Amino acid sequence: MKYMKQKRCLLAVLCSLIIICSFWVGIYEAEARESAYFRSTSISISSAFSVTFVARAKQNMQELGLKSYTLYTSTGKYIMSASPKDYTSGLIFSTNIDLSSHVEKGKSYYIKATFYADGETKTITSSTKQY
Amino acid sequence: MKQRTNCTKEERIQKIMNSALDAPLLSAQEIYEAMEEESNKPPKSVNNAFINKCSQLLCRMYACEVQAHATEAEKLRSKNQLCFRIGSRPLKVHFSPCIKRIIPQIIVATSLIVVIGIFGIVQVPGRLKAKPSEDKEQLMVYNDCLDASSPSLASATRPSEFSSKRVYSYEDAFSELGYHFMIPSYLPQEVKIKDVYIVRDETMDQITITYSDKNKADGENAVLFLDFSFINNQDAAITIAVEQTGNGQSYLLPSGKQIYVTKNLDENLAMYKTSQALYQASSTYYDNNTLIKIIDSLGG
After folding, report:
1. Phi and psi dihedrals of B221, rounded to 5?
2. Which residues of B259-277 are buried (b: 16+ CB within 10 A; e: fewer)?
3. Cα-flanking dihedrals φ and ψ of residue B275, to 5°?
4. What is the mean pLDDT of residues A53-57?
5. pLDDT tens digits, one per residue of B78-107
6. B206 contact residues in A (CB cutoff 8 A)
7. What is the value of pTM for the model shown?
8. Which range has the worst mean pLDDT, A28-32, B31-35, B169-173?
9. How far is residue A34's CA from residue B136's CA, in Å, rounded to a whole number?
10. A129 and B236 in contact by Cβ < 8 A?
C-alpha cells in the first residue's frame, strides 16, 4: 500500500517532467518560425564569391545586422566562420564580404548566416554556388 | 529483557537448574554472576552441571538477543527502502535514513531547477535563439525560381561593386539605378513615401520603399513597405528568405497576376513574382485586400 503510493508519486513527477519538456520543445519550435522583427533576409553570392547579406525589419531596430556566418563546401564540410556582429540601427541592414580567399576554383560552397535584430536571431542557408 | 530478581544464592542456583532453555527464570546478568561465582570455587567443589547449565542458558539467551537485533535491523532496513515494480518483479532500492528523509526535498528541488531552467531559457530570447532550429516556415526564393536567364531590368548601368544608398523619391531611385521599375498606381490616400533604400551588387538590386502615414502624429513611422528584388546575374546564388506564419495562399487576379498572400505574426504580406523580379508589399496596418490592390496596381 505504502509503495503503491510512492509509485504513484514517482509516476506523477515523471509525467509532469515529460509534459514540461514537451511544452518547452513546443515553445522552442514555435519561437524559431515566424518573426517578431524580421520581414526578410537574403544572401547573394556572386561569381567572384563576393557575398551580400541583407536584413529587412518590420520596425526601426536599435540593433539590426549580421551576427555570424559560416562557409561550407557543398558536401557540408566546414571551411570557415566569422562573427562580425556588424549592427546598425534602422529598418534595413546590408553588408558585403569578400570570401574569395577561402574558396578553391571548381568547388561548390554554401553559406549559413545568422542575422540579429534587438535580441531575435534568424538563420538562413544559401543555395550552393560553384567558384 | 528479564529484570534482576532479589533472591538468595541457593534460590538462584535452584532457579537456574529448573530453568528451561527457552524460558530462563533469571536474567542473563544474574546467570552470568552465578556462573562466575561457581567457577571461582576451588576446582574440587565446582558444580560442573551448574556451570554447563548456566553456559547453555547464556548461549541460548545470547542467540535470541542476536536474532532480536537482527530482526530490529531488518525492520529498520525495510523502513529505509523504496520499492518499485518493473513488470511483475519488485525492485528494492536502499537508502540510508538521512537520504530517505530528504528524498521529497530532492524531488521538489529537481523539479524547481527544471522549471526555473525552462523559464529562464524561454524568457531570455537571446539565449533561446542563440541556437536556432531550421525555420521550416520561411518562404525561400532562389534566383532559379525567378528565371534569371531572362534579360533583366537591372542589367543596364550598374556598378560591379556593392553599394547601398537612401533616396527620397521614385525619381531619385530611377536616376540612381539607371532604369525605371514598376511603381503602384494605387496606394492608400493617407500614405506618403518616406524613403527608398537601394542595395546593389553584381548579383541583384534590392529596393525597399518605405511609406509613412501623413495623418498620424507618429507619421515618421513606417506603415507600408514595398520590397523589390531585381535579379541581374544568372551566374549567382541568390537566396531570399521571407518570414511567414504557416503557409499562405495563392490567388490568380483578373489582371492575370498570380499573387501569394501570407502573414508573419501581425504583419500581412502579398507577393508577386515575374521572371526577373520579386515584388512584395507588407504592412502591420493594412489588410491583405489593400496589399493585393497595391501589388495588382504595379505598372498599371
Report:
1. -75, 145
2. bbbbbbeebbbbbbbbebb
3. -70, -20
4. 93
5. 555 554 454 555 556 666 666 666 777 788
6. 42, 54, 94
7. 0.61
8. A28-32
9. 9
10. yes
Chain segment A58-99, per-residue pLDDT in tens: 888 899 999 999 999 988 889 999 998 888 898 899 999 999
Greater model confidence, B298 or B77: B298
3-state DSSP call for residue A70? strand
Q: Is B225 on the interface with A (CB under 8 A)?
A: yes
Tell me the β-bridge partners of B278. Answer: B229, B273
Report the residue of chain B nearest A43, measured CA to CA. Answer: B239
Which are the contacts of B78, defined by CB distance < 8 A and separation ≥ 6?
none
What residue type is B238 in one-letter code? I
Selected residue of A5, A9, A44, A120 to mutate for chain B interface (largest B Cβ count, 10 A): A44
Alpha helix positions (H), chain B: 9-18, 28-39, 48-79, 97-123, 125-129, 170-177, 288-296
Cell numbers representing residue B145 in the block: 525560381
Torsion sign over Cα B25, B30, B31, B37? negative
